[in-house]
Amino acid sequence: MVLSQGKKIMVQAAPFMEEGERMLCAIVAQARGRTQAIAGSTNLGATQQGTAADAAAQAGLTVASPMGLAITNRRLLTFRIGMPWGLGLGGSVKELLSGVAIEDVDRIEVKRLLIGRVLNMSVRGHSFKLETGLGADVKGLAAALDQAKG
What we know:
Blueprint: H1 5-12, E1 23-31, H2 34-39, H3 42-58, E2 67-72, E3 75-81, E4 84-86, E5 89-90, E6 93-101, E7 105-113, E8 116-123, E9 126-133, H4 138-149
Antiparallel strand pairs: 1-2, 1-9, 2-3, 3-6, 4-5, 7-8, 8-9
């Protein structure tokens, strides 16, 4: 059976969960600008990636490209993952990069991008942007945040 990338992250992240913690939703994401850097706008993409990574770091999160981004009933987590290849291949969870209490996540807003989506996030008052492909369950991620915050 082939799992979606998000479901694969949810399954493989189990060893990183605290007692009583449960995974609500996970997606593959990356710092905003990664796609531009790959597509040829290297300077603009690198600047956007650096800005996103710096703001996330100020909020206590480590971002990677690509990474697993997950919401549990207690925390927002980032994971280092292998390169996803589609159809559930690749993208295996390597390590937990960071986590912040769900109460510290101010918002996750989703905006459509040409070939994906942009996540405008605010954590501990620090705003930053991530991007993801069209197949990522970004609405599920935002709903999971609402659910976890009650």
